[in-house]
Amino acid sequence: MAYRKGTEGGLKYKVHYSADVKTRIITDCYTTTGATHEGLVLPVRVDYLCDEMGFDVQEVIADRGYGRGST
């Protein structure tokens, strides 16, 4: 269950995309429950791109939801 101010609570999910900025190709697509905090997802997905996919990640750009720690 996920709740957000001003919306009705319910079963929700979030999709987290990673893309190469130069080619605009999506390099990763990861789905979580709506209750999973974005701040926990970002480091795991960057590690995945580096360790499993072999990308040399130089810079990460994300919206502010990914910049906060877990709540």
Summarize the structure.
The chain is an alpha+beta fold and 71 residues long. The chain has one helix and two strands; from the N terminus they run E-E-H.
Molecular structure report:
By secondary structure, the protein is α+β, with helices and mostly antiparallel strands. It has a domain at 13-57. It is 20% helix and 21% strand. The chain is built from one helix and two strands.
Specify Rg, calculated over alpha carbons: 14 Å
Gross morphology is elongated
Measured as a percent range, the helix fraction is 10-25%
Could you list the spans in which at least 5 consecutive residues all have pLDDT below 50? none
Tally of strands: 2
Backbone structural class: alpha+beta
Q: Helix segment count?
A: 1
Write the layout of secondary structure elements.
Elements: E1 13-19, E2 26-33, H1 38-51
Antiparallel strand pairs: 1-2
Spell out the key features of this protein:
about 70 residues, alpha+beta, about 20% strand
